[in-house]
Amino acid sequence: MLNYEFFISFFMEQQIETLRQQLKKQEKLASLGLLSAGIAHEIQNPLNFVINFSKLSGKLLCDLSEIIDDNRENFSADDSEEVDDIMADMKENLNKIVEHGERAINIIRDILLVSRGKDDEFIPSDMCRIVKEYVWLSYHAMRAKQKNFNISIREDYQEGLPLIEVIPQDISRAVLNLMNNACYTVWQKSQKGIEGYSPEIAVKVWTADGLLNCSISDNGEGMTDEVKQRLFENFFTTKPTGQGTGLGMGITRDIIEQKHGGSLSFESKDGEGSCFTFNIPMKRQKG
Ligand SMILES: Nc1ncnc2c1ncn2[C@@H]1O[C@H](COP(=O)(O)OP(=O)(O)OP(=O)(O)O)[C@@H](O)[C@H]1O
Ligand SMILES: [Mg+2]
């Protein structure tokens, strides 16, 4: 066999093996999706009880404080002060239970969307909430893997945005891919012991000219001209085996451009960092 043919068949075999691994991973993820949808659904009910009973207890506490106010003359000054302190603490505790319970409910809603959302179903969504949720999901996933992972994340979300029709599980995937890359590069750079380097990622969501824009910029390692050219190529990765498959950017571009009719662009300076920006039309163009 000619050397050239041998090389081609060797290369093909490698590609097939990579695809096989990818498929295995996808199957695992699919069963994990079903499992998490089941758990999320089961947790939703008791959590709603916690939130509703906390709200109800807050109202009862207000009634109680009115009764106490009507009977102040029966308390000593010290007792009266102590009762006020306890009531204030209890109100604060109940507010915290409601606040954190609602945060947990939001996370569960997202898990249910990601794991059960029908393929390509456009749903009116709060883009700031999706971006925020997945930015922090990526951050915590990275922290779980690298114990000394510590970066500062600056967030700037435009207030009062209307709901936008998107495929939520796809947009979450896109944000996760961009954020994973940003976290990875600032972490890599921070391992180099560069004096005065403090890893930073900035996230921004804003609207302009009928478009919803989202940018994720990092002060990581930036990209060489070769990486910039091959960025969207499937299976192109500069990460060590097991840390990257080289599919993230291709998937992200398809989600933004093919599925949502938007565009994805980037700027990057080798050694200094990168900024990825995507935009999608606020009004979905159907068809
Ligand atoms: N923010 C970034 N900073 C520096 N390099 C980046 C950045 N984003 C992407 N890259 C480069 O582009 C390559 C391809 O990115 P892509 O997300 O497609 O694959 P990956 O991150 O290597 O693997 P995965 O499939 O797990 O996402 C990366 O390996 C990296 O070299
Ligand atoms: Mg990636």
Tags for this entry?
alpha+beta, binds magnesium ion, binds adenosine-5'-triphosphate, 6 helices, five-stranded mixed sheet, elongated, 287 residues, 7 strands, two-stranded antiparallel ribbon
Can you give me a brief rundown of this structure?
With 287 residues, the protein is of the alpha+beta class. The chain is 59% helix and 16% strand. The strands form two sheets. It has a five-stranded mixed beta sheet. A two-stranded antiparallel ribbon has the order 1-3.
Task: Report on the architecture of this protein.
- Helices cover 59% and strands 16% of the residues.
- It is built from six helices and seven strands; from the N terminus they run ααβαββαββααββ.
- The model has no long low-confidence stretch (mean pLDDT 89).
- The radius of gyration is 25 Å and the shape is elongated.
- The chain has 287 residues and is α+β, with helices and mostly antiparallel strands.
- Residues 177, 180-181, 244, 248 line the site of magnesium ion (MG).
Order of helices and strands: HHEHEEHEEHHEE
**Strand-residue proportion:** 15-25%
Estimated radius of gyration: 25 Å
Strand order of the largest sheet: 2-4-5-7-6
Structural class from helices and strands? alpha+beta
Uncertain ranges = none
Shape type? elongated
| Termini gap | 50 Å
Secondary structure blueprint with pairings:
Layout lengths: L2 H68 L6 H40 L6 E3 L1 H19 L6 E6 L6 E3 L1 H23 L9 E9 L2 E8 L6 H6 L17 H12 L3 E7 L3 E9 L6
Bound molecules: adenosine-5'-triphosphate and magnesium ion (MG).
Adenosine-5'-triphosphate (ATP) binds next to helix 4 and helix 6.
